[in-house]
Amino acid sequence: MDRRVKVFLTIAETGSLTATACALNITQPALTKTLRSLECDLGAPLFDRHARGCSLTWAGEVLLAQAKSMQRAWNSAKEEIRAITAGRLDTFRIGAGPAYHPLIVPQLLCRLTGEFPETRIEMDTGVNDSEMPKLIAGDIDLLLGSLDGQPPDNIERLWLLDVETAIYVRSEHPLAARDDIDPLSLSEAVWLVYKKDDMVHARINTYLAAAGCRETRIAVQVGALTSGFEIVRGTDLLMSAPRQVEAIARQYGLVPLRYAETIWTFRSGACFRNASLAYPIVRRSLSLLSDLCAAPLG
User: InterPro entries, alphabetically (predicted)?
Assistant: First the structure.
């Protein structure tokens, strides 16, 4: 990719000529010369300089969208060529949401480690909002989570399962024995939330608002699903998590609440860069995931 475009993208990201020079390991005079060359070719200034750094001009905004597309195409071409010449990934990185990482991904990794012994496999937990930029940048190779919205350029998707939001409490909780939990009861309760999945809790609040109830009151936020289960089993807190992890929740003495209508169900699956399909481990992962998600969990 044109070095001038890389310089432009880095300035746009950092908002600083000094930070860009440091990031690209070049002198600031050389950086300024490169930027001026690009602006001369385009016939318009790309940045406004001010005391706090640099901000994009209208021309810079126009170029930014195209430059990002060029960068994705360049990275995609490099990855595909590397896959064809190398034939394998040294490290295979997976990002997985809460419907996948407790039960499905461990089964996947058990199979992959036996079939691809020369590849190191890493898993990170998170949801699409935080993990999709990593997938686009090439920092992870496979993302398992929500399929909401349109995929970015060069990202392919495979539907695997529909995820239903469930609400878990300890088995002795006053609401656990009821068969008709209403929105008011959920609104009046105190909650623990999985902080990596703000979208689910926002959907619950939308459900409550539609019934004329106030938003939920959050007492605890956790970064690990099982930590949340451990806390909930010793308190009267409510916690939302996918129906797919019910078997694990029950191991902690938790049960899903029963209510008349489903709060939220969404499509989920695998997201991956189309160039990465050249790697056998990516293709095999998608095949195994299709089988694992079709089998009963627990």
Answer: HTH-type_LysR_regulators, LysR_HTH_N, LysR_subst-bd, WH-like_DNA-bd_sf, WH_DNA-bd_sf
